[in-house]
Design goal:
Chain A has helices spanning 10-13, 58-66, 108-117, 125-138, 154-166, 184-201, 212-218, 236-241, 246-251, 346-352; strands at 5-6, 18-29, 32-43, 47-51, 73-78, 81-82, 93-96, 172-176, 204-209, 221-226, 229-234, 256-265, 269-273, 279-284, 293-298, 304-306, 314-323, 327-334, 338-345, 360-364, 371-374. Chain A is an alpha/beta fold. Chain A folds into two domains: 5-241, P-loop containing nucleotide triphosphate hydrolases (Rossmann fold), CATH 3.40.50; 254-374, OB fold (Dihydrolipoamide Acetyltransferase, E2P), CATH 2.40.50. The longest helix of chain A has 18 residues, at 184-201. Chain B has one domain: MetI-like (MetI-like fold, Orthogonal Bundle). The chains are: A alpha/beta (376), B mainly alpha (283).
Chain lengths: 376, 283
């Protein structure tokens, strides 16, 4: 596997001074390698996401930054200072925990003021009250200070957790799957709110999530993780358009994959041959050599589904149709390529006519929209 | 209607039990406490406050109980809390169950037998002999408040350890991470998060131990040797030896009243301090 490839992300980090940095940070839990020599920087004011399935090491990276788990080897830097051995309570970072971890024996205001009261010299009562009130305003919970935690709904608790962290004006705000416990509608609202808040405050946000939509919608930069390593990092657009492997293409957005062997390639173009003998052209980049196992990735919205055959089109049978409003999602079956997903825009469907399950059709796509990728 | 009937039916056995075995005898005791001792011992109906006026005659028993029961409770807590903390927070989960069983193991033997063991340990041939042999002079341990306190703490420690352990074990460990994340060093996290959230367990343990200690009879009888005695011992003496039922009843009623007052006061205090949400957690 290729290690840490930074594609299209330089524009995000190069012009920002680093606020945090991992240098070959490795974390082992017994025999499990949770973080494998992570080396990367986080720019000041950046909204960075770690995206990956559970066990990919994203939470470990966050916990190393927070100071809960010191790396087995390697170093962590905050604001240019080596903090590898600095305990969590002395680090100028704050976390929004997955299940909020609000103190049940305190009021909302006491929860939010907790971090301020740990400072030495201890700030005055008025100052704490003022900052707590401002934080409550910021998360739109004005007047909720005297409430008890158990009187708050899930969404409100999420805001309290957020306020409890940002009131300390941390150098980096860490968010561990912060929206996972919320329902879909609330999650969308909070995504927008988090983004707005991040821009207002100018604090660096580091988000850990397994939800690609969450990462894509909010981040300046996403690190796709797997097996304790960063497989690829870059802007949401770059990851979507130029994934470096099948794994990334599969994780960011939806995609169809056609497995085969790379038969020939130039610097930018190549041809893949399937087991059935079918050949497709596509873009190719990176070190993939002719003769290697590869996958052709085609995004569902780039496939054209038509009623009549045209040169280069493949015959399929429509299996299923799901109406999604602006788009319609078709599942089509090809004799040798298997099942493929096709996303048809509303207008296109209106002009070409809709398909019903069982209908015959033809799929085609522009060769330059297909990406030939390493198998993983 | 149906549901109401089934509720009553289900509660009937317990209700009947309490009525016959608790409320009724308690009524007897209250009535007796206003009576007089018959010439040959026992009870003659009367309505007099003489028995209550006579309470100072048993002042020593009250004093011993009211000093040693809270002291024993406090000492148990001081010893039990660190142990419970270790079991819940620090012990390897692999060994935790085994260690918990070890806490309960003493209960497998009767308290009577274990108190006999303490008679030997604290008696002339036991610990005092060792102390003398080490050259620290002669000490007497058996039949002292120290002996009774030792027996009490030994006997009731598990009752304190278990509720405190449960409250610490139930504590969401992520709260401690949150506390550290917000800048609190370990000791402050303990004082600001762990301790307040373990108060329900502390309250339950203290309540259990204190209530049982107030009525304790066996340990002072065996390790106090008639020199350090509780109200329980005074009651046995009054009812079975001097056969002064009326006075015994007055002492018993006074004990019940003292307990009601202290326990209510204590619960009220705990609720105010801990911000404990439900009274269920307290009991």
């Amino acid at each position: 596997m290729q290690s840490q490839i930074d594609s299209g992300a330089k524009d995000h980090t190069a012009d920002r001074p680093l606020v945090a940095e991992f240098r070959a940070a490795t974390k082992r839990y017994g025999a499990v390698l949770a973080a494998d020599a992570l080396s990367f920087g986080i720019g000041r004011g950046e909204f960075l996401s770690f995206l990956g399935p559970s066990g990919c090491g994203k939470t470990t990276a966050l916990r190393m930054l927070a100071g809960f788990d010191p790396p087995t080897s390697g170093d962590v830097y905050l604001d240019g200072e080596r903090v590898t051995d600095v305990p969590a309570y002395r680090r100028p970072v704050n976390m929004v925990f997955q299940h909020y971890a609000l103190f049940p024996h305190m009021t909302v205001a006491q929860n939010i003021g907790y971090g301020l009261l740990q400072r030495r010299p201890r700030p005055g009562r008025d100052e704490v009250a003022r900052k707590v009130d401002r934080a409550l305003d910021m998360v739109r919970l004005t007047g909720f200070g005297p409430r008890r935690i158990w009187e708050m709904s899930g969404g409100q608790q999420q805001r309290v957790a957020l306020a409890r962290a940002i009131v300390n004006e941390p150098k980096v705000l860490l968010l561990d799957e912060p929206l996972a416990a919320l329902d879909r509608k609330l999650r969308r609202e909070m995504q927008i709110e988090l983004q707005t808040l991040q821009r207002q405050l100018g604090i660096t946000f580091v988000l850990v999530t397994h939800d690609q939509e969450e990462a894509l919608s909010m981040s300046d930069r996403i690190c796709i993780m797997r097996g304790g390593r960063i497989v690829q990092s870059g802007s949401p657009n770059a990851l979507y358009d130029q994934p470096v492997s099948r794994y990334v293409a599969d994780f960011v957005g939806k995609s169809n994959f056609i497995d085969g062997t790379l038969t020939a390639r130039t610097a930018t173009e190549g041809q893949i041959e399937c087991a059935s003998g079918l050949r497709f052209a596509g873009r190719v980049s990176g070190a993939l050599a002719a003769g290697a196992r590869a996958a052709l990735s085609i995004r569902p919205e780039q496939i054209d589904l038509a009623h009549s055959a045209r040169p280069g089109a493949e015959p399929v049978t429509v299996i299923n149709r799901i109406f999604l409003g602006e788009h319609t999602e078709y599942l089509v079956r090809h004799a040798s390529l298997g099942d493929l997903m096709v996303l048809v825009a509303r207008q296109a469907e209106a002009s070409a006519g809709r398909f019903a399950p069982g209908d015959a059709g033809f799929i085609s796509w522009a060769p330059e929209t297909g990406l030939i990728l390493p198998q993983d | 209607m149906q549901r109401r009937l089934s509720t009553w039916l289900l509660l009937a056995p317990a209700g009947l039990w309490f009525a016959v075995m608790l409320v009724l005898p308690l009524c007897f005791v209250v009535v007796f406490s206003f009576g007089e001792r018959a010439a040959a011992g026992g009870y003659v109906p009367a309505f007099t406050l003489a028995q209550y006026a006579n309470l100072p005659a048993r002042a020593t028993a009250f004093r011993n109980t009211l000093v040693l029961a809270p002291l024993g409770t406090l000492l148990s807590l001081v010893i039990a809390y660190p142990l419970a903390y270790f079991l819940a927070m620090r012990a390897d989960p692999k060994w935790r169950t085994l260690l918990l069983i070890l806490v309960i193991v003493p209960f497998w033997t009767s308290i009577l037998i274990r108190s006999y063991a303490w008679i030997f340990i604290l008696g002339g041939q036991g610990l005092p002999a060792v102390i003398e042999w080490l050259g620290f002079g002669q000490v007497r341990l058996i039949n002292t408040p120290f002996a009774v306190l030792t027996g009490i703490v030994y006997g009731y420690l598990p009752l304190m350890v278990l509720p405190v352990y449960v409250s610490l074990e139930r504590l969401d460990k992520r709260l401690l991470e949150a506390s550290a994340d917000l800048g609190a060093p370990p000791m402050r996290s303990f004082l600001q998060v762990t301790l307040p959230l373990s108060l329900p367990g502390v309250a339950t343990g203290c309540m259990l131990v204190f209530i049982l200690l107030m009525g304790e009879f066996l340990i002072p009888a065996m390790l106090g040797g008639g020199k350090v005695f509780f109200i329980g011992n005074a009651l046995v003496d009054l009812f079975l030896q001097s056969r002064n039922w009326a006075f015994g009843a007055a002492v018993a009623v006074t004990l019940v009243v003292i307990m009601l007052v202290t326990v209510s006061l204590y619960m009220w205090l705990m609720r105010r301090m801990g911000g404990v949400r439900d009274d269920v957690a307290l009991m």
